[in-house]
Amino acid sequence: MAVQAWTLEQLSKLRRYQPEMVDQALEEMLKRQANLRWSVVIGAYLDEEINLSKAADLLGMHRLELQERFIAQGIPLRIGPDTVEEARAEMAAIEAWNVESEKSGQP
Length: 107
Prior knowledge:
Blueprint: H1 5-17, H2 19-32, H3 34-46, H4 52-59, H5 63-73, H6 84-104
Helix pairs in contact: 1-2, 3-4, 4-5
């Protein structure tokens, strides 16, 4: 059975009412088809829906490994926070880590 545009539209509609069913089917399909999973994740990365770390996580790779693969394939890298809020959150996390390190006596 060839997938028609209406099939995708119906899956989208069905997901509104039975999200678990559609999500489970999609997750299983993406687990079994590595090329499709790669294309979906990279598409989301290129559309700036996810960052490099999330893409690596979804692909089961270390971020640096994915970064090297992107460079080899000419995929543009987006490194660092995407928004001011993300930058502030990173700074807060670093500051909290520094405080904890000082308390425990670790450099």
